[in-house]
Amino acid sequence: MSEAKEQVPNSADRAEVEELVDTVMAGNDQQADAETDEPVDPQTEVEKLQADLAAANDRALRAQAELDNFRKRSFRQMDEERKYACVLLLRDLLSVTDNLDRAIEAAEQNENSSSLLEGVKMVGQQLTGVLEQHHCRPINAKGEVFDPHLHEAIAQQPSAEHPAGSVIEVTQVGYQLHDRVVRPSQVLVSSGMPEAQPEANTNGESEKEGE
What we know:
Elements: H1 2-7, H2 11-36, H3 42-83, H4 87-108, H5 114-133, E1 136-138, E2 151-157, E3 167-172, E4 175-177, E5 180-183, E6 185-190, H6 202-210
Parallel strand pairs: 2-6
Antiparallel strand pairs: 1-4, 3-6, 4-5
Helix pairs in contact: 4-5
């Protein structure tokens, strides 16, 4: 009788056994569910991964291209700003050039100012050389076809020597820095041949005199 009693499991052992049975049954259920799922095609999975990789590469190439374009635009903008940085200074210097030109013209008309004329001419040539060194050059205007981008018309007048629309005279020299106009040339523009004056009616005048 004592041996039979020793073989009967107590309540703690029974709970442990039940828990073990539940774990085994749950594992069997998960395995059964996994077996009922559709199998994954390896080729399809590879194709999907390749498509994702191609899309990622395309996005990376687009981002690199946009970055390169941004750098190029920035470099162009910096180069242009550096190229035309002295525009304001040149505009102020141009008034000095105008005064030198006027002084030279006045000295040329005075016979007793030869030494002064030579000195002023040397200063003018030096200033012109400095302007050209900084790529600031006068705009050709006289005899040229009027260009509103380079010239500023202050008046029109008929001319027998210059065709209509061409520059007759320059009243103020214009300058440009590289390809940008610093100051347009002020010019007189030809309106074409002068109109013929009506001839006097000599016969009519003689008739009036006879009367």
